[in-house]
Amino acid sequence: MEELFLQIRxxxxxxxxxxxxxxxxxxxxxxxxxxxxxxxVPTPRRTPRRHSPRLEVFKKTIDQ
Length: 64
Known about the structure:
mainly alpha
């Protein structure tokens, strides 16, 4: 992902391409292009916390 950010930033500086043109070129969302232009490092992805409501009742028994 950092390589993609670097390429987007480089094309923006060299060619002066717009956000829409960069998004079209790299086939990504315009939001990602804006993020790449504002920061050289992508924000870390969050891992969703998943729970299982049906299993909650039995978790203590399973852990034992």
